Records
---
Amino acid sequence: MLGGKWAPALILLALALVCTLPAACGGGGSEATASPEAKPTQSAPTPEASPTQGAATVDMRNTAFHPQTLVVSRGATVTWTNSDSVSHTVTGDNIEMESGTMGKGDTFSFTFTEAGEFDYHCSIHPFMKGRVVVQ
């Protein structure tokens, strides 16, 4: 059975395949119509509305950063914890930030003193990406 981190992609693929059938997506006409009860959906999670002040945490599990985007106030200290059974790093893309290799249970903390958007990744698993937005 497939699942885990691939489940959302598989669902989107299945929906795309179903919607290639004219009867499945409202007929063969070229105009799309929405029913009155249709509601817009959100495709990606957005950062929390108000910034975290003081201290915030990011968990590394299932080879991903949770949350992927974190909003904090200037001066906040963010602590990453590796909850995976494999090693990870926290490596800044546009900021001097490097945790070194972190084994299971290891933590790394960094204090953000300037406002901006700071992207980072795991140098061992480059597909693992995260962002800290400092307000």
---
Amino acid sequence: MAFRDVQEVVAGVVNPQDTPRQQAIALHDFVREQIKFGFNKYFDATPPEYLLAFGYGHCNSKSHLMTTLLRAIGLPAYQHFVVIPKEILRGAIPPSRYWMIPAQVSHSFVEVQLEQRWLELDSYVIDTPYLQGAQRRLLREGSSLGYGVRTDSTNLWDGQSNAFAQFDRQHMLEDHGRIGDLEAFFKERRYRGVVLGLRFNTLFQMMGEAGVAPMNAHLEQIRQMR
């Protein structure tokens, strides 16, 4: 079933009789599986409605959606930005485009308050077929990092602990904390989504859906890895 906006997702995915933790897990699993790891023409500035319709998003677009959904069920939630090395994306981006990515990239995860505890997670970023395919490639290569994941990544979340599919604190280069005004943040010098003076948000809009199609096709090949 396709959902047009956040309220439709909440109405269709969340059981009102469930506990807040159960509701949060249901939303987490929806974002994980129904929005495939990939890219769209709005990149980091993807509106939730477009992400739901297009069905592909990466860490920052999916984190924005996840934050919005958690707030919609009344949970305090924030999008937290950090800077990490681009090496995690090796193999996930075709070589013809990987060279364009700056050495350091802006990554975000979600902070959510559940049962009086603040939890951190980005386990919703990587859908299960992709995680399995990417980890198979890493194991075959004898690598621990690449294709957008780690060999010890998890996309499972119990609503009681931190869970990361991409972020690893030992790889964090800078911590930018909770970001509320995304548009303002994207204009700051600390935001790393820039190449040759052009923001990726602008570049991807110039590319359009046709421009991101080969990137998503490349990721689909990784999903098929057996």
---
Amino acid sequence: MKRNWVGLALAASLLVNAGVLGAVVYTAWQRGGPGELPYFGMPHENLPEYLGLTAEQRANWHAMEQGFLADLTSDAREIAAHRERMIRTIFGERADPAAVEAERAAIFALQERQQRRIIGQLLKERDVLAPEQRAKLAAHLLRQAPMGAAPVRP
């Protein structure tokens, strides 16, 4: 019985994380798509201005972000679907630990894919930016708080 509670506690923790991500996607959907998504704590359409991108850099930036944001949104929808199935399994007539674990594993894999996408995107953006712009973006990202943590102040 004790092991079952540990699994449920893990599932609840995962649900909170997936819920936050789901809320971001839902908010973006309510506003008409990924154009309003915050990009590391700043609406992404403000980031090129903040970094002082040239017209050429801005064109490259926007071209790179289109597929990236669409992929993140797609991943978030998949995570939300797995989250919903996991919740229904946990609170259904009879909780099936194997089914809960399968949904948890699927969510974990999708979250890992998202992290890899973000790192890949940052590496692409790095190549477009001048050294002072990279430093400015790095400082901005370092000020952002990880989920559940207090913001870091310089």
